[in-house]
Amino acid sequence: MEILTTPYGIKFNFAIQSEGTSPLHALPTRNCFTVASTCTKSQKFGKLTSAHQSVSGFSGGGSVPRNGVLENASMLLSSMDLTNPDECTELYALILQNCRKLNNLRLGFQVHAQLIVNGVEVCEFLGSRLLEVYCKAGCVEDARRVFDKMSERNVFSWTAIMDVYCGLGDYEETIKLFYLMVDEGVRPDHFVFPKVFKACSELKNFRVGKDVYDYMLNIGFEGNSCVKGSVLDMFIKCGRMDIARHFFEKIEFKDVFIWNIMVSGYASKGELKKALRCVKDMKREGVNPDQVTWNSIISGYAQSGQFEEASKYFLEMGGLEDFKPNVVSWTALIAGSVQHGYDSEALSVFRKMVRQGVKPNSITIVTAVSACTNLSLLRQGREIHGYCIKVEELDSDSLVGNSLVDFYAKCRSVKVARQKFGMIKQKDLVSWNAMLAGYALRGCHEEATELLSEMKFQGIEPDIITWNGIVTGFTQYGDGKTALEFFQMMHNMGMDPNATTISGALAACGQVRNLKLGKEIHGYVVRNHIELSTGVGSALISMYSGCDSLEVACSVFSQLLTRDVVVWNSIISACAQRGRSINALDLLREMNLSNVEVDMVTMVSALPACSKLAALRQGKEIHQFIIRRGLDTGTFIWNSLIDMYGRCGSIQKSRRIFDLMPQRDLVSWNVMISVYGMHGFGMDAINLFQYFRAIGLKPNYFTFTNLLSACSHSGLIEEGWRYFKMMKTEYAMDPAMEQYACMVDLMSRAGQFDETLEFIEKMPFEPNAALWGSLLGACRIHCNPDLAEYAAGYLFELEPQSSGNYILLANIYSAAGRWEDAAKIRCLMKERGVTKPPGCSWIEVKRKFHSFIVGDNSHPIMEQISAKMERLYFDIKEIGYVPDTNFVLQDVDESEKEFSLCGHSEKMALAFGLISTPAGTPLRIIKNLRVCGDCHSATKFISKVEKRDIIMRDNYRFHHFIDGVCSCGDYW
Predict the structure, then answer these.
(1) CA nearest to 346, candidates 371, 316, 318, 378
(2) Cβ atoms 431, 398 nearer than 8 A
(3) What is the C-alpha separation between 185 and 162, in angstroms, rounded?
(4) Residues in contact with 449: Cβ distance below 8 Å, sequence separation at least 6, in sequence order
(5) Backbone angles phi, psi at 927, to 5 degrees
(6) pLDDT band with cut points at 50, 70 and 90 for residue 190
(7) Does the reported pTM lie above 0.85?
(8) Comparing C-alpha atoms, which of 843, 914, 929, 939 is closest to residue 617?
(9) Could you tell me which residues come within 8 angstroms of residue 870 by beta carbon, excluding any fewer than 6 positions away?
């Protein structure tokens, strides 16, 4: 037979040379130097005996060093009698066998090269030996070519090639080879069946596994313990515990290996009582449990989250005489903790394990590194990395290397991740995927593109996991545009997306508001009958919501047959973010009634709905729920509660939660400073910032934005300038547009218009809409229509559809008596199709929200509300209130203007609250627009005569009215 494969020896011109110095050990082999049937024993016996001794290194029971063996092999190859093919075949086979044993694969490739050069016919026996060399070297393609060219293949050949594919995880090919083997009439043996059953187990393909099992019975193959164990394991992993139990009971002789498979099967399925019962039966039949048995029980409890029970059996195992907890026992506890989100506990167990002198293996290290990744613990992860460097087998392990690349990338140490990636000697697909995903998570577009090109150049084709890591990584970074570019690149390469890819691409569409592409992806999902599972369903909801199509998002939600916590979180968050706060809270109640277990994300999604509605009662209920369910373990939950209480007007509660936090991050400080600022407590914000600096913390841009905004709301000009300059002088931070806008707001609200315009001219970048909006708002306070006209000109270009800018300019004209100019602005709005939302205020009374729109008299008790307003007007006029008709923007007489002021929505909400709640109850009112000056003045007087605390939030800030005084100090 002619082997046409070109071996490595020819490709790379290897010389025949020795490797290493270890002695040759005679390992048992199934071939047992079987001689081809064509050999004539009488002619060969003497020569072959001598050759055996020379090549295998044995002569009179002595041993020869490895280099001596290979020198003998080299001599034999050069002195072979090519006229005697039988002798050549035997010697070639013998040399190939020892090449495989000694792991000298170069020599094996050279032998193959000499076979081709000398035209030696490769028989079944020699072909098997040659195949084993390529399989041992992991040269899959070359091994397959050798295998495919073999004219006759025995069971050994089939076993060798199946072992390669099974070892690589190509279980589909393993099964195909088995069926080809049967078709060729080769009877499988006890080495073949375990590989096939393992392939079925990993694929969870019960149909094929049962077919192979039936075939095994039909040919009368009973199998040894290893075969029976692989059958049992296949039934278990395919989820057929009933068949597994029946098969188990039929096994006459059950050794500890068989018992352990059954115990492990029950434990892995969470049926721990049955697993323990199996252990009892095992002891009753005289089979003693071993380490594997105990580890299965410990692992089962740990994986199911029952850590007390897992620890109990772990301690019991430690008290045994025959054996103690080993690395597998410790790893089971660590992995179970990480699996259930107890990363800190996992690291604690890992530290104890190392202190007790138990050496971790690669799985232990990977799990511990994963815990560090989840907690973003850079220092602890580095310590584990340092430990690995000291242990060579860990430092060179590809699993460990891949986990460290992932860890450093996700902990924002991309350079270190790249260095570790470069140090991995044998990079597999996982290595490349980890590094690419790391670049994507950090938004490194150029680096990701270059690495992807290098990956292809190295001959490694990206798989679906590669693209998923890139697309979802850039989406998580917030770069939806780049994520969609790579999604398109994947599509151009002809690779079909899966649910994860689609979810990431939909999220990217929501970020860039690409509704058209989002709909196309939705159509792809429908056409290809892709299940609207957790990922795809929630991603569709988020995409449509992000593209301002909340109704479609709600429609998608209603069509989902299965709604888990992720889907519920998506729709609640979508409604809360799009101003449908009441719907968000209704959905939260519906979720509870549906018996879906809420999580921290649910709470964080629902709390903003309470904030927007100033629904303090609902916010308190959610807070109580969080405490009862033990969901207050994350810092972001505490931060959300601080923000919620602050936006609901309960600033004291915000500060109390801030003070009680077990651990504060930078966001905690930023939120608390922001709460003080929005309520007009500028000095409190400054004092908190000073304490923040005193304990050695470093602010970021958000800190300064919130601090400068607090100064602006309280008119603290000198302090504002000091902190604006501090950014550059003390923290080397160049102020961004947000900080410049705060300074413009601060100066212009104080009436320093010349200084403001000079400041704007010296800015290092073009002013944005927020900055011009601050200037326009200040022009309303100081009635400066000329400057307002100047600022509005820029705003009409930057935000042509924003009605607030038109209305504000028209109001400034009206306040200045320029009625014609005001009318022109309203005509301009009509020409451009800009509509103004009506003034609306709402208040919560007796677990129900009541809304009031200016000029709307449809409320059921409007007569009582109007009567209350009349009495209030009479009472507050008695103590000095004078209606400010300048805030009536129609050119009518004074009596009509005063009557018009009574219909403002905030006044109606206030009157309703007074007649609907017990005396002394604080009132919380929200308005969608800025509260007018007359309503502000009237509310101060009402708080005095009614002896009520009134908290009013408009679209700009909070006002706390207490005994005739507002927290803003009339500086708003």
Answers:
(1) 371
(2) yes
(3) 16
(4) none
(5) -125, 140
(6) very high
(7) no
(8) 843
(9) none
Cα–Cα distance, 167 to 154 (Å, whole number): 20
Phi, psi of 966 (to 5 degrees): -105, 145
Residue 74 confidence (pLDDT): 53
The Cα 817–Cα 888 span in angstroms is 11
Q: Are 602 and 569 in contact (CB under 8 A)?
A: yes
pLDDT digit string, tens, across residues 498-508: 999 999 999 99
Written as six digits, the tokens of 646 are 């602050």
Which residue has 């939806």 as its token pair?
Answer: 480
Which residues, in sequence order, are CB contacts of 284 under 8 Å at separation 6+? none
| Pair 333, 298: CB distance under 8 Å | yes
SS3 of 920-944: the string is CCCEEEEECCCCCHHHHHHHHHHHH
Give me 169's structure tokens.
């995880």
Instruction: List, as one string, the DSSP characters of 204-267.
Output: T-HHHHHHHHHHHHHTT----HHHHHHHHHHHHHTT-HHHHHHHHHH-SS--HHHHHHHHHHHH
Tokens of 334: 């660590």
Maximum Cα interatomic distance, the chain, rounded to a whole number of Å: 134
CB atoms within 10 A of CB 657: 22
Between the alpha carbon of residue 521 and those of residues 487, 499, 751, the distances in Å are 11, 11, 53
Core vs surface per residue 57-92: b (16+ CB within 10 A) or e: beeeeeebebebbbbbbbebbeebeeeeebbbbbbb
23-27-29-34 Cα dihedral, nearest 10 degrees: 50
C-alpha span between 237 and 183 (Å, rounded) = 27
- Cβ-contact 166, 199 below 8 angstroms: yes
Q: Let me know: does 522 contact 547? Beta carbons within 8 Å.
A: no
CA distances from 480 to 329, 535, 720 (A): 43, 17, 36
Residues 364-396 pLDDT 10s: 999 999 999 998 889 999 999 999 988 878 888
pLDDT at 917 over 50: yes
Question: Rounded to an integer, what distance in angstroms lies between the CA atom of residue 361 and that of residue 380?
Answer: 18
CA 446, CA 441: separation in Å to the nearest integer? Answer: 13
Q: Which amino acid is at 554?
A: C
Burial (CB count within 10 angstroms: exposed 0-12, middle 13-18, buried 19+), residue 628: exposed
How far apart (Å, rounded) are the C-alpha atoms in residues 922 and 919? 9
Spatial contact of 571 and 541, defined as CB atoms under 8 Å apart = yes
d(C-alpha 287, C-alpha 284), whole Å: 7
205-244 residue pLDDT tens? 999 999 999 999 999 998 889 999 999 999 999 999 999 9
Looking at the DSSP bridge assignments, the partners of residue 840 are: 853
Residue partners of 702: CB distance under 8 A and separation at least 6: 670
Q: How far apart are CA 958 and CA 647, in angstroms?
A: 8
- In one-letter notation, the amino acid at residue 334 is I
Q: Are 470 and 456 in contact (CB under 8 A)?
A: no
Q: Does the CA dihedral 758-762-763-769 come out positive or negative?
A: positive
The string over 757-783, giving b where at least 16 C-beta atoms fall within 10 Å of a residue's C-beta and e elsewhere, is beebeeeeeebebbbbbbbbbbbbeee
**Looking at per-residue confidence, does 87 or 253 come out higher?**
253
CB 898 within 8 A of CB 826: no
Taking the C-alpha atoms of residue 913 and residue 850, their distance in angstroms, rounded to an integer, is: 9
Residue 899, CA distances (Å) to 41, 74, 183, 925 in order: 125, 113, 98, 22
* Residues 739 and 961 sit within 8 Å (Cβ to Cβ): no
Tokens linked to 262:
């059954």
What pLDDT, on the 0 to 100 scale, is given for residue 902?
64
- Sheet with 848-853: list strands edge to edge: 848-853, 840-845, 923-927, 950-953, 958-962, 965-966
Examine the pLDDT at 129 and tell me if it is beyond 80.
no
Phi-psi region for residue 478, left (φ > 0), alpha (ψ -120 to 50) or beta? left
Instruction: Specify burial of residue 505 (Cβ count, 10 A radius: 0-12, 13-18, 19+).
Output: buried
Q: Which H or E run contains 632?
A: none
